[in-house]
Galactose-1-phosphate uridylyltransferase (Limosa lapponica baueri), 260 residues
Amino acid sequence: MVTEDVQHPALQPYSPPQVLGHMGDPSKHARYNPLRDDWVLVSAHRVKRPWQGQLEKPPPEDVPRWDPNNPLCPGATRANGEVNPQYEGTFVFPNDFPALQPDAPEPGDSDHPLFRAAAARGVCKVMCFHPWSDLTLPLMSLAEIRAVIDAWAELAAELGASYPWVQRLLIKYDNLFEISFPYSMGWHGAPTGPYLEEDCGHWQLHAHYYPPLLRSATVRKFMVGYEMLAQAQRDLTPEQAAERLRSLPEVHYKQRSKEM
């Protein structure tokens, strides 16, 4: 029997393309995003400016495993009065305060061209990955992560078995400032609605993570005027951000401290 050690493309050594030489100072330019057909302002020099704004306290390291004040814990009472079951794995329930509802009414008609509205319907659910409050995805076992992925797969059949790459990325986020990294995350599946009749076989399921930390564990990344009102902007070049994550160890910082 012949075996071959084949690595995933994400594990192969990466050499960034030398595309910025003609730009002069690469820390100040607009970068074209071909996926969105849009331009992003890159101001990589801004992270060097002195910070005299608000400083955040790092999250506590001694998070209780079960907290009666945490409405997501097993047996806890949520804001709507419902009591969670004594779950031992993943727990999925409808969001008590959803952004979308499946039975949203149709808005009234308007003859004015500037006042247009359409019904927005959807289903919002909450998933508790694990019954312990002090355990995040990067610290869970592969079997526990697989249970999370299986629960995802029940909600979206396209997810498949990509859980190792999800865990590796989140470990690097945690290792960046050695805290449990806060983030907002969303999955992007194939187009729906009027695109269902089109061939979307080329579509790749992907996730977006929006971390609010950039400088350190205590300094948040705040949106400023031109980001909210003009165009997308980033304080690092894509190459700098990718290299920072790529250079981090793949062993979680909490597990490294236990091994020492």
